[in-house]
Write a structure and sequence with these properties.
The protein folds into two domains: 239 residues, Rossmann fold (3-Layer(aba) Sandwich), CATH 3.40.50.2300; 128 residues, Rossmann fold (3-Layer(aba) Sandwich). It is 41% helix and 19% strand. It contains twelve helices and 15 strands. β9, α9 and β10 form a beta-alpha-beta unit. α2 runs parallel beside α11 and α11 crosses α12. Bound molecules: (3S)-3-methyl-2-oxopentanoic acid. (3S)-3-methyl-2-oxopentanoic acid binds next to loops.
Length: 391
């Protein structure tokens, strides 16, 4: 809510509204803090109180391959945003240790103790289904920057994502792989214990069906498995054109290495976790020819991409990845939502995040609809000489 007048009466009403307890449809207390709503709009917006933004990423354990880059991308954006006039952000960053329990505790802290205006994260869809249910009932807007499974924005009206859904990525990568690899017959291997890899598996089988590609081998495994001899034995029996793999890095690295040791040379088509230089580095030669769809490429000439890459390199002495670019974009989208009505209260951010019609980001033009879902164009990349190259 933005008050356009400053008469005594209006200020009195504002004070009343600011202190009256409001309850949203979800039962959350949506009482606004008047110090978080400022004057002016857009670039002219000025808010007196420091705006607290929360973030929950997997900074340690299995998903840290993405979480560390997300932290860096987000901190770079906050630094840049704080250099602009009018709004001072304070980032409260939590590590969920790559577990659902850790993520739940971190969300609870940000929602109740830190009283943040909005939350960015978590890293994995596997945590999002629990944590977003909590954010929704508390009335705290949450913006996913890497949560790609089906059904996430549908959790509720406080839940948004700026992370390309895996459905969209695979709709681009599977037809591209079909053409590049002359893919007629494939093996599909998936982690059956993770929300994202299971969701992606369903999409993969749908896409392959639509493309008329035969699934000659269809095997699953667990997130923490280390021995894939049984599944790979099945792949060896068939002469497949590619292995489509829906897995997180922890299983991917031993699986692909064991496949190569067994003499399986078929290229890999991967899901969102493969958009990681950490994973590609760990796979070494075994990653050559790998095809993956994603939200960002270093080679894209999107608005601000060259400057983002240069600033990131200067600050961290390494190149950004897709997860860094998405987290960086997420902070700018929240800033846009706050500036729209010059109001950093939870309700206002929620109302405005779902109305980002087109924002020119390093990911390319991006929009978020009222249902919380993102629209952006996917990129498809192939690993050549150990580096991602646009296909
Ligand atoms: C998800 C993902 C992961 C691969 C992000 C790191 O896409 O969990 O949805």
């Amino acid at each position: 809510m933005r008050l356009k007048t400053s008469s005594g009466a209006a200020l009195a009403v504002a004070a009343l509204l600011a202190t009256a307890a409001c309850v949203s449809e979800s039962g959350a207390d949506t009482t606004a803090d008047s110090a978080l709503s400022g004057s002016g709009a857009g670039e002219e917006c000025k808010i007196d109180e420091t705006v607290k933004l929360g973030a929950v990423f997997s900074l340690t354990e299995a998903a840290a391959f993405a979480g560390e880059y997300q932290k860096e991308g987000l901190e770079l954006a906050i630094e840049e945003l704080n250099a602009a006039e009018g709004i001072e952000y304070e980032l409260v960053l939590e590590d969920d240790g790559s577990t659902v329990e850790g993520s739940t505790v971190a969300f609870e802290k940000l929602i109740n103790r830190d009283q943040v205006s909005a939350i960015i994260g978590p890293t994995l869809s596997n945590m999002a289904f629990s944590t977003y249910t909590d954010a929704q009932s508390a009335g705290v807007p949450a913006l996913g920057v890497s949560t790609t499974a089906e059904g996430i924005p549908e959790i509720g009206d406080y839940i948004f994502r700026a992370s390309l859904p895996e459905v969209s990525a695979l709709a681009a990568s599977i037809p591209a792989a079909k053409e590049t690899l002359d893919m007629k017959k494939v093996a599909v291997l998936h982690d059956s214990a993770d929300e994202f890899t299971v969701s992606a598996y369903r999409t993969i089988t749908d896409e392959l069906g639509e493309e008329g590609i035969e699934i000659a081998v269809d095997e699953s495994f667990g997130t923490d498995d280390t021995d894939f001899a049984a599944q790979l034995g099945k792949v060896l029996e068939e002469d497949v054109d590619a292995v489509i793999l829906s897995a997180l890095p922890k299983a991917t690295v031993p699986l692909v290495k064991q496949a190569r040791d067994l003499g399986i040379t078929a290229p890999i088509v991967g899901g969102n976790a493969f958009n990681s230089p950490v994973l590609i580095g760990a796979l070494g030669d075994a990653a050559e020819g790998l095809i993956v769809g994603g939200a960002w490429s270093a080679a894209s000439e999107t608005t601000g991409n060259a400057e983002f890459i240069a600033a990131y390199n200067a600050k961290y002495d390494r190149a950004p990845d897709q997860f860094a670019a998405q987290a960086y974009t997420g902070a700018y989208l929240i800033d846009q939502a706050i500036r729209a009505d010059c109001d950093a209260n939870r309700e206002s951010i929620k109302d405005n995040l779902g109305q980002i019609l087109e924002y020119d980001s390093v990911l390319g033009p991006i929009s978020i609809d009222e249902g919380g879902e993102v629209t952006q164009t996917p990129v498809v990349q192939i690993v050549r000489d150990g580096a991602f190259t646009l296909l």
